[in-house]
Amino acid sequence: MSGSRSPQSAGSASFAASDTLAAMDAEPGTESEPRRRSHWAWGDAAREPTRAGLEALAPEVRRRLGFGGEEIEEPIPRDRIDLAPPRLKPPGSLDGIVSADPVERATHAVGRAYRDVVRAFRGRFDRTPDFVARPRDEEDLVRVLEVCAERRLAAIPFGGGTSVVGGVEPRVPHGYRGTVSVDLEAISGLIEVDTVSQSARIRAGTFGPHLEDALRPHGLTLRHFPQSFEFSTLGGWIATRAGGHFATLQTHIDDLVESIRAITPAGAWESRRLPGSGAGPSPDRMLLGSEGTLGVITEAWVKVRPRPTFKASRAVLFADFATAAEAVRAISQTGLNPSNCRLLDPLEAGTTGAGDGSSAILILGFESAHAPVERQLDLVLACAADNGGRPEPAPDQGGDSASESWRQAFLDAPYLRDSLVCLGVLSETFESAITWDRFREFHSRVSEAARRSVAEVCDAPTDGEGAPRVMCRFTHVYPNGPAPYYTILAPARRGSEVEQWDEIKAAVSEAIGSAGGTITHHHAVGRDHRPWYDLQRPEPFAEALVAAKRAVDPEAILNPGVLIDPDRFARPDPL
Description:
Elements: H1 17-23, H2 51-65, E1 98-99, H3 102-107, H4 114-121, E2 131-133, H5 138-151, E3 153-158, E4 178-183, E5 190-194, E6 199-203, H6 208-215, E7 220-221, H7 234-240, E8 257-264, E9 267-270, H8 283-287, E10 296-303, E11 305-306, E12 310-318, H9 321-332, E13 340-344, H10 346-352, E14 360-368, H11 374-386, E15 390-391, H12 402-422, E16 425-431, H13 436-457, E17 469-478, E18 481-491, H14 497-514, H15 530-536, H16 539-552
Parallel strand pairs: 2-4, 3-4
Antiparallel strand pairs: 1-2, 5-6, 6-10, 7-11, 8-9, 8-10, 12-14, 12-15, 13-14, 13-17, 16-18, 17-18
Helix pairs in contact: 1-12, 4-14, 9-11, 13-14
């Protein structure tokens, strides 16, 4: 693969996604050429892998991974997708805001998990919404929900469609006469800015880039950048409790929300805008992470800040991951709170091009809109050095750009995954959180379960040449524990990738749960994590959640099967 590398990774087994993009002869859409989402891949159709790019990439994949790229498979073209016809006609009362167009139905049938990408790649749209609704405002949305309640239709809120846990699929229990994907893209835009309180009121369907573009003229930023930033929305972030840019302190969208407004079948739900409150259970906390089951989020007041002008970052090398993890624990408990504190194990560092694979790498960063941050960075670097780390020289002193290499690979990873699907490489991620006192055992058990499961399911060796890769990094850290994020690369069995994924997913999820971690730190529950979420939550809380849903959604039309099974309180009549 061509592309620039940091000095430390020259000649290493880096696997940076930016290299892959350089090999692809594809350009994103321009103003004169409207963007069109791919029917199967992560981003725009214009950025789908090309045959020429894949042929250039395949030998490098085999060389660096020891598997994959033996043959190139191409996706089922958009015009050859064969869908079952809708079970009902769009009601006349919703003319102008609903569509039964096959492409619309297909693109709203799946999210962007590995299994979703593979199914769409092969044209396997087993369940599709019967039609797609695009309400233009809350009045339209109310009409859509009224029709769904009257006709016993499941209403599935859809933001950017980047769910990786089955959260937007029309995979609903029996008893519904149809499914409607409720696309919120038209309910978007910046409504108002309060510069005195540093807050902004923004509609839920606003995509990340558009949100930042709207705040930029005010000199402000939300500074919430999940990996899906380009194609995800504010409402989606809130509904799934998305993790963002900051590795410490304000790690989730939760920390940036001031108030939320949602539309439910029982009426509007809007919290009072306050900097904080101790008045009973928070209505905002009920909607955060509700995944479209308690209402369709339409807007929110969020906390914004001046755009940072002072930034400093540095990489620190460690002999091994365990030593590095102890250093991160020490840093997380200093109270210095770096904005970036990502730890990569040696294999992940080498694979992403941040290092040569011989050391664990900690990427540290600080930023501020008000004052230089070099002093804070120096203090954290000293803490890292006291705990076995070796800080790399600063860039102006001849140091490398490990942090920038990793950042680019992080942003490009979903595009790389598309290419790997074409080349027969299975890729999957698992994320969790655990307290520091249990992390060592947790990491050992989850890593071993992943290696054993992947080797068995993929009929591959557990180590050595051609062995699947099981890698780990910390995405976020807290004074009381880290959020480890595991990535798997393995040889796929063509045509059976989804079944492979299901087996590996189950094995690793079982290990995460039995070792005491959360089934998800920031990917949400959806339908894929439901079995382990049910085990994680206390049963009295589950009953309280059922009661809350009964109050706002008595017919259980909102995203049934996510978080709550509708038959716990409102079983639809048999058809």
